[in-house]
Amino acid sequence: MLYQENQEVVFKINDFINSGQTSLLVQQNQRNYLFFLNLFTLIIMMSATFFVTSPVTICTFYKSINKVFIERKSLRGNQIIEHPLEYILRFDIQEKQYKYSKLYRAVIVLKSFK
């Protein structure tokens, strides 16, 4: 609370003591920290929502049937893609730059370049 606001409260109390009034109600709000607490909670909830809604990809390779199954799971549904193993050209590492860090992930390069 600012000095000026406290000074106004003190003047009200002094006026009440010196007056013939029978009651006085003084309220002070010192809950400024609640704004920052709510802001912090909102940021945490948004981050959690991002991670919960991010899709998960599972690749399963079967030599016996000569196929790879790529399964993408997310809150919006599941998608399964299958390709013959001979459609795989190579595996690469993909790099993504964020503000202060880099993210690396394995990528399957298919003959169709998907």
Give your account of this protein's structure:
This protein is rod-shaped. It has a 3-stranded antiparallel sheet with strand order 1-2-3, with no helix packed on it. It has a two-stranded antiparallel sheet with strand order 4-5. The relative contact order is 0.09. The chain has helices at residues 3-17, 33-53; strands spanning 56-62, 67-74, 77-84, 88-97, 102-110. The chain is an alpha+beta fold. It contains 2 helices and 5 strands. A hairpin with a 4-residue loop joins strand 4 and strand 5 (102-110). Helix content is 32%, strand content 37%. The mean pLDDT is 83. It starts with a helix and ends with a strand.
Hey, roughly how much beta strand do the residues contain?
35-45%
Radius of gyration: 31 Å
CA-based shape: rod-shaped
Query: How are strands sequenced across the largest beta sheet?
Result: 1-2-3
How far the N terminus sits from the C terminus, by CA atoms, comes to 60 Å
Summing up helix and strand content along with how strands pair, one would put the structural category as alpha+beta
Q: How many strands in all? A: 5
- Give me the number of helical elements: 2
Give the overall average pLDDT: 83
User: Approximately how much helix is present in the residues?
Assistant: 25-40%
Task: Please outline the major beta sheet.
Answer: 3 strands, antiparallel
Low-confidence stretches: none
Topology as H/E string?
A: HHEEEEE
